[in-house]
Amino acid sequence: MKNQIKREQKQRVWFRILFQWHGSVLPSILPKVLLCGAFSIIIALLETGGLNLSLPLESGIVPSIVLGLLLVFRTNTAYDKFWEGRKAWGTLINTVRNLARSIWVSIEEREPEDRTEKIVTLRLLVAFAIATKLHLRGEPVNSELAPFMSPLRYEKLKIMNNPPIEVAFWIGDYLQRQFDRGYVNAYQLTAMFKLVDQLVDVLGICERILKTPIPLAYNIHLKQLILLYCFTLPFQLIAQFEWLTPLIVALISFTVFGIEEIGIEIENPFGKDPNDLPLEQICETMTRNIEDLITLAPCVRRWQDTP
Amino acid sequence: MKNQIKREQKQRVWFRILFQWHGSVLPSILPKVLLCGAFSIIIALLETGGLNLSLPLESGIVPSIVLGLLLVFRTNTAYDKFWEGRKAWGTLINTVRNLARSIWVSIEEREPEDRTEKIVTLRLLVAFAIATKLHLRGEPVNSELAPFMSPLRYEKLKIMNNPPIEVAFWIGDYLQRQFDRGYVNAYQLTAMFKLVDQLVDVLGICERILKTPIPLAYNIHLKQLILLYCFTLPFQLIAQFEWLTPLIVALISFTVFGIEEIGIEIENPFGKDPNDLPLEQICETMTRNIEDLITLAPCVRRWQDTP
Amino acid sequence: MKNQIKREQKQRVWFRILFQWHGSVLPSILPKVLLCGAFSIIIALLETGGLNLSLPLESGIVPSIVLGLLLVFRTNTAYDKFWEGRKAWGTLINTVRNLARSIWVSIEEREPEDRTEKIVTLRLLVAFAIATKLHLRGEPVNSELAPFMSPLRYEKLKIMNNPPIEVAFWIGDYLQRQFDRGYVNAYQLTAMFKLVDQLVDVLGICERILKTPIPLAYNIHLKQLILLYCFTLPFQLIAQFEWLTPLIVALISFTVFGIEEIGIEIENPFGKDPNDLPLEQICETMTRNIEDLITLAPCVRRWQDTP
Amino acid sequence: MKNQIKREQKQRVWFRILFQWHGSVLPSILPKVLLCGAFSIIIALLETGGLNLSLPLESGIVPSIVLGLLLVFRTNTAYDKFWEGRKAWGTLINTVRNLARSIWVSIEEREPEDRTEKIVTLRLLVAFAIATKLHLRGEPVNSELAPFMSPLRYEKLKIMNNPPIEVAFWIGDYLQRQFDRGYVNAYQLTAMFKLVDQLVDVLGICERILKTPIPLAYNIHLKQLILLYCFTLPFQLIAQFEWLTPLIVALISFTVFGIEEIGIEIENPFGKDPNDLPLEQICETMTRNIEDLITLAPCVRRWQDTP
Amino acid sequence: MKNQIKREQKQRVWFRILFQWHGSVLPSILPKVLLCGAFSIIIALLETGGLNLSLPLESGIVPSIVLGLLLVFRTNTAYDKFWEGRKAWGTLINTVRNLARSIWVSIEEREPEDRTEKIVTLRLLVAFAIATKLHLRGEPVNSELAPFMSPLRYEKLKIMNNPPIEVAFWIGDYLQRQFDRGYVNAYQLTAMFKLVDQLVDVLGICERILKTPIPLAYNIHLKQLILLYCFTLPFQLIAQFEWLTPLIVALISFTVFGIEEIGIEIENPFGKDPNDLPLEQICETMTRNIEDLITLAPCVRRWQDTP
């Protein structure tokens, strides 16, 4: 019975997604689909007017394979970028969690001030993530970052070329200082530095995804083949389908343009579209994890808490 | 002779799987398959009633390639998630085994209490795995976890946002304390910390798999193309197959919906369905490995056992 | 001239493989192929008896693509497992070599007994590999392992759930003891521990490959589609091929069942079939490498050899 | 409204790319396309002259699959090289950033001269990237490198076989010297050495990409199949298309040659073509990041700045 | 103008590769292609003699997909091995460079003899690469190795089962000795040991590639399907093409056998064929890099050079 209900629900979800407009590629490809349809109508009119424009249907399997291949290729490389971007942000979460735990557990607190400084640094980790988000979106340092650092640093950050790198410098500098004061040993310091390196690696990976579109030659060749295909289609179909031709051409071009458009949409996954990564949510999760951690008392605490 | 019997057995297994209902996608796709069949019956009725609804069979190879491509893509990305999830849990097993062995072998035991504390920590490793399982399934901390930690910690865990992270903190804090007491040297501590980091990495990987479905635009486009395909099918087949059309449409739509449904089923591999990962079993194996380890006496033991 | 001979030899090999029975999938798929052939004969008889069972040949390209896709998928995932298993054993060889060299080169020998103990540990490395092999094949600890450890340990091993993990514990315990005695420094100990971790990782990877078959839903769907395909084939071919139909159906079903069977055969590569990994050979190579190493005198030897 | 404008812009970009000449493969493949067209005209002339050269259209699906497969293969391996090259340079950026930050944050500055030396080393990191760029392009050491090192070193570099390796030696030597003077501890030194190793790894990866074209046998077989395909095409099409044959052959051969040419173009991504990696830009970004870092004061500074 | 010339050159290269015999698969597949052609001539003769051997052309799309799939699979796995082998040798170069630089920069030289010993060890690194090359080619230790080690060691190497492992032992032993003498600290020693481990890993990877052919079942099934395909081809084509059949069968079988042969040729990339890896060149590059390094004076040199 319960399964029955669950299954019906699944069916409903299936059909809701089917007709969803928001997040679909339809708005973007409609003009091109209509263009192909309109062109087919002209062909159909000319055909009715007595011109014989029909071409035999089968024009070879190899060009179809080539077009199919290019579409597959476009889709796969775009999705690979999407997924690599997602993985990079997953690594960012993991690294922030691990670095935060290491700092919280391993750096000594001889006085309450040490604890305060630790909390400041933990929040800098979140600041790194948010700064990376803004940097990837081409947005300037804004008020979203303010709660995670001192006003002085916030002002300084505003004038930097690459704010996340600056934040990473602060974290590294804090760690080095703790080592110089003897609050952490050299081995753990080195391990923590590696985690900071990982943060910067993530930043670099995201920048690489952002700045390396599909090679231009592919893009041009693919667009040319798609158009060639869609514009030769009515000649192939007109004899058989007559006045249905525009409809069928529209449907087929919808299929083909749709898959190309998806590639374009997900290639850069750091934006704010419904098809992009939920970076806001990821940053919030990170903040929550850090705030949770701060509520716990590690054994390296050498002073007495009095609440 | 023995080979003969083994082969016959294999054949029987082959046919048993063939007709298996439990774990198959049939229950989920039956409504959609019947819908397509019903639609075909209507078309067949109208055709018999004199309307000529037939369309020529060949409507171009490229849309078929595009649909095929999207299905391949759906299947591959879903399976990649399944397999990455499996790999993550494999890493979890390995890391728990390695960390347990390191703790058992390398941390000094000066008094019997040290050994007790070690056992507590080893059980926390299993608790980490179970907590991760519950967290991934969206279930609250429950009695399954109780035997692996003190009641105090169990209560504390119940109120955390992300219980596995808390468990990782306890393990890290235990290790740091042993270092502060001089029971383990800094290099081994750092190596153990890296293993704790790995545990948290696995958690992050699983969360990423769970929370990143296929991009929406793909999902919509795929569902639209499948439906488009299944609903234009009767028009293509009616002239040739007549009253067999509904049967054939049902079979073909079964093929296509089935492959899509598999993608949906295995995309999130952390559930309790027959197609999901055997997380219960994995956790049990882990528990057994840890209990086995506890029966062995490492050379770092400085006190005399008297059983 | 020499090239000529070499080429002729290659041609001979080519044709010898072609007709090889041992290791081919023919024995396993023959019943199913004959079944399809028999079914076709029945259809052909009924057709000759006057029933018109013929169906038009072309029943759509998409179901063919779906079946093709599933076969590709089956083959690729099975081979990936085969290859990942091979890689894991490659890593095992490498790690055993590296760990053996590290132990041999870096652990001090103050007395001849130290050397003896080293040799014992080096043989434990081979024992780990053999125990893993037996464990993966579901075989109990047997006499194959006896020469590589003391009788006491051999007996102990017999009663463990997971023998390789026990062997890893012994190796780890030996290393830790050397560190406690000051025969090796902490950094090298940590590096050696990492290699032991790698051994256990390999074990975990192999267990994962062994225990994770292709998701059930795929398996069922694939088998259903294959059978559906093979049993609709005679209806499609009967009009054209008449009494040749059974032959052709048998050939085609041979093609399809063959590729599915290969997937089944190589999915678990740890058995003893001709298509499995040569684990015996790998273990022998390892033994030979270790025995070679033992013949060399490292500079850490502090006592005088008198041969 | 805003979305509307954005969408129109996207459409314009789409069409601009479509007709772009610079960066497209058209200039390179035009001669071959024209050759195929000319050959078709000859066939058409002969056919009109009374010779029956027509061949039936369908000459088997398998050769088409083989050609398609080879084209896919060509494209994928070429793109993999492109992308691996991009990744290598991404790693280069990350490593330069991390090594620069480590040096800046962790190496002590007891006197202002220490700082100067640090800056010299940081600039050597950029020099490494530029030297790698020049080395990959087969260009000699030139004035581009001069600002990043002393004239003495610049002269020395000019006579080396592999300049980047020399730069890596200088960086390594600097780090070792700081360790010998007690300005950095052994653990951090080791971590920094690993980053230098990574720089050299990137160099090796790029050299590998550069020097390993697709295996010759593939290349020959692919070219032969393409030509075979394009030259049998007119015989297949002449009966149906008559005087349209040359046009259609030209279009199809454009499709096929285009995809092959793309493979050739992006296989070596280190050149200066529009389809190559933007190495100039990458080096500039790196320079900017380093100069930014130099403006910050790390806590290891033991002397008073007086600006 | 310059572009024009460059483009013409490219066209010439294109056509030169097209007709290249050396390195192409033609010599190997010619016998099989001729066999298929001859078989077709027999069929054509019988057909002319009055027997009706013609079969309808279309025998289903699924077997074609299966054959295509197996060919793709064959090609991809073979190329993966080729590329993995190339990567392994790339790693070898990188590791040799990094280890050489580490040794040169970090190990102290208190007397000129220390330097001589360093140079001996650096040359052993090259010896490792050459020994690996010979080992992979199944060649015995020969004079190529003599210049890189003392005659004593050269003789010893000749009697070992696996020479590269022996060389790795010598390198490891040298490093350990330096540590025992206090010429290098423990951290750097450990890092260098890891690089030696990497050398041995590369050896293991190459051995794995060499000793793991494609699973037998695949190989048999593929060869059977190819022959089945080529021998049913004339029956399918005879009605349409008549006396052109042998030519067309030869061309198609050339296509299919060619792609299979390429797989065979590049599967083992360590030989001396034109399609194999340029191991000679790689070893020479390595030698040159090492000799270059030796010309540089590192700061760890504590004695005065008098050139």
User: What is the beta-strand fraction of chain A?
Assistant: under 5%
Tell me the quaternary state. homopentamer
Structural class given helices, strands, pairing of chain A? Answer: mainly alpha
Tell me about the biggest sheet of chain A?
A: none
Shape of chain A: elongated
The figure for the number of domains of chain A is 1
Structure notes:
The structure is a homopentamer of 307-residue chains. Chain A has ten helices and no strands. In chain A, 74% of the residues lie in helices and 0% in strands. In chain A, helix 2 (26-48) crosses helix 8 (216-241), helix 2 (26-48) packs antiparallel against helix 9 and helix 8 runs antiparallel to helix 9. The first copy, chain A, has one domain (35-46, 59-294).
Compact overview of the structure:
Five copies of one chain form a homopentamer. In chain A, helix 3 packs parallel to helix 10. Chain A is built from ten helices and no strands.
Task: Please give the structural blueprint.
The structure is a homopentamer of 307-residue chains.
Chain A: H1 2-18, H2 26-48, H3 61-106, H4 112-136, H5 151-158, H6 163-180, H7 186-211, H8 216-241, H9 245-267, H10 279-294
Helix pairs in contact in A: 2-8, 2-9, 3-4, 3-7, 3-8, 3-9, 3-10, 4-6, 4-10, 6-7, 8-9
Question: What key phrases describe this protein's structure?
Answer:
homopentamer; 307 residues; mainly alpha; 74% helix; 0% strand
